[in-house]
Amino acid sequence: MIKLLGKIFIKDYNNYTNTKVRNKYGILSGVFGIISNLLISVGKIIVGLVFGSVSILADGINSLSDMGTSIITVISYHFAGTPPDKEHPFGHQRIEQISGLLLSAIVMVIGVSLLKTSIKNIFTPQTMVFSYIAIIILVISLFVKIIQSIFYFRLGKIINSKVLKANAFDSLNDCLSTIAVIIAYLIFHFWSINLDAYLGIVVSLFVIYSGFKLIKSTISPLIGEAPDRELVNHIENKLLSYKGVLGIHDLVIHTYGVGNIFVTVHVEVKSDADFVECHDMIDNIERDFYHDDAINLVIHMDPTEKDTEESIRIKELIAKILYDINEKLSFHDFRVVSGPTHTNVIFDIVVPQDFLLSDRLLIKEVKERMLEIDKKISLVINIDHNYLI
């Protein structure tokens, strides 16, 4: 199905790694979601209103919120392909989050309204009419949701999209709520037990939760969330694969939307290496990342001195001190400046996000521990905070 739709609507549809092709597949998934969820929600809402079932109506509203999510997906991938302009040099992708916030608010208001109606119906039950038409529409919507889940999961795997994979699991969750509505409706038909209002409360709470979850997912990127671990690993492994790169540190990743990633990093090279050759290597790495991964990479080159017996000894001492304080602490930009009466050791400590000690107290602790070991070593410490997961 995916290949057939791709062949019909997307040029060069087999080139899944191409950013433009990937964006078009994202838009295709969104359009598929809009059409399928619109049909499902309209069917459920009509059935809920005609046959007096608040639970079916709530389930229809839930499908309507899924259609909103699909609209956001289309907006996201559409603006991912829109070139930046003078006023927005980093692109327009964050419109996705703004649209998502608006949609989330609407979904939550609807959910609260349905919750009130369901609670009211417990005390003043409405007359509910059984109809096989309602069952047929609910079963059809169930199968559509299963198809949605399979479609999202397979396409998400093809274009490596976590958003689509999340949509796949969301569709499966919707299947459970629809199954619950069908069971309650059948119980009413065969045993005349009306669970509609109670199930309406459950589904309306699910709608409210969906709205809350959508708010959380749209606010987090606007605030500035930690980058995906898979992306971090890919960047680190690719950088270290280049001959001449001894190590990396101070990796910072800014994401402005799908296919719009800006990265800065310090790359360690030999201090006695040819400067022109190193600069050429850095240029090639930056070009490779932009061409292969659509990543705007800026590299700061750090020359690394050759290790001596003394520098190795001091490195081992510092590593031991840091490990004893917290095993997650690390250091880089290490330099040793020897003098007649003392040795200055200059380096940066990388502090993880969950580290509780303040920068000042950490520096004080490291210096005091070093003085206990070797009073001739004077530490000059800078603190770096890790912005990765």
CATH-defined superfamily of the largest domain: Cation efflux protein transmembrane domain
> Order of helices and strands, N to C?
HHHHHHHHEEHEHEEHE
Structural class: alpha/beta
Structure summary, number of beta strands: 6
Runs with pLDDT <50, length 5+? Answer: none
CATH architectural category of the largest domain: Up-down Bundle
Q: What is the total domain count?
A: 3
What would your notes on this structure say?
The chain is α/β, with parallel strands linked by helices. Helices cover 63% and strands 14% of the residues. The protein has three domains: 2-223, Cation efflux protein transmembrane domain (Alpha-lytic protease prodomain-like, Up-down Bundle); 229-304, Cation efflux protein, cytoplasmic domain (Alpha-Beta Plaits), CATH 3.30.70.1350; 309-385, 2-Layer Sandwich (Alpha-Beta Plaits). A three-stranded mixed β-sheet has the order 1-2-3, with helices on one face. Strands 4-5-6 form a three-stranded mixed β-sheet, with helices on one face. β2, α9 (275-293) and β3 form a beta-alpha-beta unit. α3 (54-80) packs antiparallel against α6 (162-191), α4 (95-123) runs antiparallel to α7 and α10 crosses α11 (359-373). The longest helix has 32 residues, at 19-50.
In short:
With 389 residues, this protein is α/β, with parallel strands linked by helices. It folds into 3 domains: 2-223, Alpha-lytic protease prodomain-like; 229-304, Cation efflux protein, cytoplasmic domain (Alpha-Beta Plaits), CATH 3.30.70; 309-385, Cation efflux protein, cytoplasmic domain (Alpha-Beta Plaits, 2-Layer Sandwich), CATH 3.30.70.
